[in-house]
């Protein structure tokens, strides 16, 4: 097998792996969407739940800093 054939085969395998992972990612995305729909059917606000998930991913210090800046901006706009 020539070096070009080896490189082409390796590239094909990488592409196929990426395609499989993209399909799995789509499936997981669909599962997450279903959980949000189920929560909504039980009276929960999906938008707020998404915000909580995003906040929980943040480091506590980063979250506190963001909340302080938000409060400053709200106050400056007279929204407090």
From TrEMBL:
Pfam family, one: GapR_DNA-bd
Residues annotated as domain GapR-like DNA-binding: 7-78
Sample GO molecular function, one term: DNA binding
Family designation: Belongs to the UPF0335 family.
Name of the featured protein: UPF0335 protein BV95_03874
Organism from which the protein derives: Sphingobium chlorophenolicum
């Amino acid at each position: 097998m020539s070096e070009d054939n080896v490189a082409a085969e390796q590239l094909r395998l990488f592409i196929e792996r990426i395609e499989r992972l993209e399909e799995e990612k789509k499936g997981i995305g669909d599962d997450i969407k279903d959980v949000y729909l189920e929560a909504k059917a039980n009276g929960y606000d999906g938008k707020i739940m998404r915000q909580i998930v995003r906040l929980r991913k943040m480091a506590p210090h980063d979250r506190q800093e963001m909340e302080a800046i938000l409060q400053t901006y709200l106050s400056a706009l007279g929204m407090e």
